[in-house]
């Protein structure tokens, strides 16, 4: 699956950005290209992935497994496959519409926009993170505010500030992106510019023919010992996906 899928879960890809940094408008354009590259690397034109999720709290842990499919920038389906008590729970994102299916109730529910920033399956990721919602690209302005080097790559720090009147939750977002489009970190600030949570890439691995953030962890600020980790174990990108996958019918009665 915003903000950052489950940012993350669910899994989602790309190519490297062509960078030619200059002052003013050119710099802003390159900052946007970096963020776009990170989203493309996560999702690609289409994707299919298997992801395990660990929800950690002081005193207990919960482990889940899910399969995810994405297509373009506005379609995503995530279905839990384990443990048995959670299997069948699914979330479908179609543009600005988010539907969830609870097999125990055999009911599909449309989530109001006000709930998209809420916890997804009790984790530290939100419904927006699940589909890697692109609000940061469309509702924010972007600027490169720093750079460094790690693992043989240049790493750029991109600051994203809301456009005037933008209907967004965060007062600011800040992302660290490698020069090949791999997202290394995303930090979320409230309207008072205080850090609310941070997602870090704990491992970059080769999967689906690309370098990819295969292990990411979301940690809320000021909640010691609380985090949620997503581990991508399998992934394929730029593959044909049948149209029926992203339908309400398949959400409730899966054909895969």
Automatic annotation (TrEMBL):
<dbReference type="Pfam" id="PF17131">
    <property type="entry name" value="LolA_like"/>
</dbReference>
<dbReference type="InterPro" id="IPR033399">
    <property type="entry name" value="TP_0789-like"/>
</dbReference>
<protein>
    <submittedName>
        <fullName>Outer membrane lipoprotein-sorting protein</fullName>
    </submittedName>
</protein>
<feature type="signal peptide">
    <location>
        <begin position="1"/>
        <end position="25"/>
    </location>
</feature>
<feature type="domain" description="Uncharacterized protein TP-0789">
    <location>
        <begin position="72"/>
        <end position="252"/>
    </location>
</feature>
<keyword id="KW-0449">Lipoprotein</keyword>
<keyword id="KW-0732">Signal</keyword>
């Amino acid at each position: 699956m915003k903000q950052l899928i489950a940012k993350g879960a669910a899994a989602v890809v790309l190519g490297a950005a062509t960078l030619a940094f200059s002052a003013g408008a050119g710099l802003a354009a390159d900052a946007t290209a970096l963020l776009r590259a990170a989203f493309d690397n996560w999702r690609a034109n289409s994707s299919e992935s298997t992801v395990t999720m660990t929800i950690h709290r002081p005193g207990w842990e919960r482990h889940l497994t899910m399969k995810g499919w994405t297509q373009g920038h506005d379609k995503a389906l995530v279905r839990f496959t384990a443990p048995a008590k959670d299997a069948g729970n699914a979330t479908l994102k179609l543009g600005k519409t988010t539907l969830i299916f609870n097999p125990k109730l055999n009911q599909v529910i449309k989530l109001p926009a006000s709930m998209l920033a809420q916890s997804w399956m009790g984790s530290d990721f939100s419904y927006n993170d699940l589909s890697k919602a692109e609000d940061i690209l469309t509702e924010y302005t972007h600027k490169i505010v720093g750079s460094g080097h790690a693992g043989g790559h240049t790493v750029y720090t991109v600051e994203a500030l809301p456009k005037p009147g933008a209907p967004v939750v965060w007062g600011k977002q800040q992302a660290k992106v490698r020069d090949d489009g791999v997202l290394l970190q995303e930090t979320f600030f409230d309207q008072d510019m205080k850090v609310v949570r941070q997602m870090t890439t704990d491992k970059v691995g080769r999967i689906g023919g690309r370098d990819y953030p295969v292990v990411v962890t979301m940690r809320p600020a000021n909640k010691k010992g609380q985090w949620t980790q997503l581990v991508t174990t399998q992934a394929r990108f730029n593959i044909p996906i049948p149209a029926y996958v992203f339908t309400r019918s398949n959400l409730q009665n899966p054909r895969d």
